[in-house]
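Quick illustration, no need to memorize.
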Amino acid sequence: MSDRHHDQGHVDPHLNDPHRAGLTGTTPASLYDPLPVRDTITIPPDGQPLADQPQWRQDFPIDWPQDQYVARRDFTKFIVLTSFAFVVGQVTIGVTNVFHRTAGAAPIKRIAALADVPVGSSIVFRYPAEHDPCLLIRPSENQLLAYSQSCTHLSCAVVPRIKENCIHCPCHNGFFDLQTGRPTAGPPRRPLPKILIEVKEGIVYATGVEWRTV
């Protein structure tokens, strides 16, 4: 057999099929082998073949394309996981709010004696359940305000700034109006749940929760 012809073991069987009249295929089957993925090809920084590189580079090759591929993959994984965690957090907050709204009428609960809340101060109490922190605020002699202490953004504990007439969320620098509990700056978009209160014989009582969306 002539040197121009390849061994039958290396001939593409599709081109050498006897039913393909007029074709005398000698194309190596390797012609159809998949090309290597670009991100898996090691390319030295100077672009020269690996055999021409210094011995230290041959001993410790750095696969730059593969490293970049891994970095992109890890970054994508991080974004997906972070987004998933954010969605889970928002869903949890929403489910909690729905549960509170459908759990029935809140109980009447004693908060504190009016004399224990001086003008210009605030106290923390729990309502309607022990895991629900709230704020009782006394801006003036004849005014009492009460709100949930959980920020409507990501449930961080908010802090009243009575002299500035606002309530501040230190986690993400959110602000609420002290008089209404509605958001005025930062990430929060919903007002703080308002705690309904009554004063009887010098005692402050919580009587319900007003859930608001605007």
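The first strand starts at residue 109 and ends at 113.
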